[in-house]
Amino acid sequence: MKDIIQIISNLEDMRFIKPAPMEQIIEAEKKLGVSFADDYTKYVEKYGVISARGIELTGVTTHERLSVVSVTKKERNMNSNIPANMYVIENIAIDGIIALQDETGKVYTITPNGTPKLSYNSLSEYVEKSNF
Questions:
Q1: Apex CA 87: angle with CA 81 and CA 90, to 5°?
Q2: C-alpha angle 4/131/22, rounded to 5°?
Q3: What residues contact 126, with CB distance under 8 A and at least 6 apart?
Q4: DSSP string for residues in 5-33
Q5: What secondary structure does DSSP assign to 94-114, as a single string?
Q6: pLDDT (tens digit per residue) in 31-84
Q7: Which end of the chain has less Cβ packing within 10 Å, N or C?
Q8: Model confidence over 15-36: pLDDT tens digits?
Q9: Up-side HSE of residue 73: CA atoms within 13 Å toward CB?
Q10: How far apart are alpha carbons 92 and 29 in whole angstroms?
């Protein structure tokens, strides 16, 4: 599996806000009642949150629109089919599709009122294949 940091650093027009300290990452997990996958933790610890051409991941940040905590809680309120052990990694903004990740690192997509469908085996694979 390719390293998430290497993949993100190669994204075109990549921007990030600021790295998230481990204390904030742990607090975000507690607020959501989840354990982040290792690659997600590694990503937010290095970048906090990113935006690049074709992708805008949630992260550990105070910016509500990009906060994994805020976005996940909002989406859980709108769709009861989102499992409690998953968190939103991206609002794809096409037909209401949301990308979710579980603690094992697998990435799922879900439509409004749909059920999660396995789409990628890792955040690395998701970022690499979603970058347009």
A1: 100
A2: 30
A3: 89, 99, 101, 107, 119, 120
A4: HHHHHTSTT-EE--PPPHHHHHHHHHHHT
A5: STT-EEEEETT--EEEE-TT-
A6: 999 999 999 999 999 999 999 988 999 999 999 999 999 999 999 999 999 999
A7: C
A8: 999 999 999 999 999 999 999 9
A9: 12
A10: 22
From CA 114, how far away is CA 112, in angstroms rounded?
A: 5
Query: Quick one: tokens of 94?
Result: 């096409």
The encoded tokens of residue 131 equal 């970058």
Q: Which residue has 């690395």 as its token pair?
A: 124
CB 69 within 8 A of CB 32: yes
The Cα 2–Cα 5 span in angstroms is 9
Residue from 66, 63, 110 nearest 86 by CA: 110
pTM score of the predicted model: 0.94
Q: How many residues does the chain have?
A: 132
87: left (phi over 0), alpha (psi -120 to 50) or beta: beta
d(CA 108, CA 114): 12
Tokens encoding 23: 């204390």
Question: Which residues are paired to 118 by β-bridges?
Answer: 108
